[in-house]
Amino acid sequence: MRSRILRLLCCCALLVPCGTASAAQWQAFDVDDGLPQNSAVAMTVDRYGLLWVGTEDGLARFDGQRFVAFDDAVDRGWLPGNYIVALASDDDAVWIAAESGGLARFDLNRERFDVVPLRDPDGGAPLNIWSLTVDGDTLWVGTRDRGLFALDRKHPERVLDHWHEGAPEPTRRLPLRAVRDVAIDARDRGLWIAGVDGLFHLDAERGAARGAARAEALDGIDLQRADADIASVFGRNDGSLWLGLRSHGVARRREGAHAFSILPFAAIEGAETPVVNRLIETANGHIVAATDRGLQLYDTDCDCFRAPASASPLRRALDDAMVLSVVGDGDIIWAGSWNRGLFRFDPQAPDFDLLTPADLGGREAPVAPRSLYVDREQRLWVGSFGAGARYATIEDRPMAQWSWQRWLGQVGSRDRQVWTFAETGDGDLFIGSDVGVTRWRNQGRDVVHLDLEPEQMDELRRLLAASDGAIWASTVGGVHRIDPQTLATRRFARDDGLNDLRVYALAEWPHGRLLIGTWSGLYTLALTGDHIEAMPLHIPGQPQGAGLVWDLHTDAEGGVWIGTSNGLLHLDRDGTTRRFDESDGLPNGVVYAIEARGEHELWLSTNRGLARFDRRTGSAIAFDAEDGLQGNEFGFGMAAQDARGRMYFAGLGGVSRFDPARMQITPRAPQPMLTRFFLRDREIAVGSVVNDAVPLPNSLFATDRIALGWRDRDLGFAFSALAGDPAARLRFRYRLSGKDEDWIDAGERRYVSYTNLAPGQYDFTVKVADRFGREGPERRIHIDLAPPLWATWPFRIVAALAAMLLLAALLHWRVATLKRSREQLAAEVARQTERIRVQNEQLEAANQALFDRSIRDPLTGAFNRRHFGELAEQAYLGCRARGQPFALLLFDLDHFKLINDRHGHAAGDAVLCAVAQAIRPLLAGQEAMARWGGEEFVVMWPNHDAVAAMDRACTLRDVLRALRIAADGTPLRVTASFGLACATTTHQPGLEALLAEADAALYRAKADGRDRVFVAAEPGA
Question: Model-level pTM greater than 0.85?
Answer without folding.
Answer: no
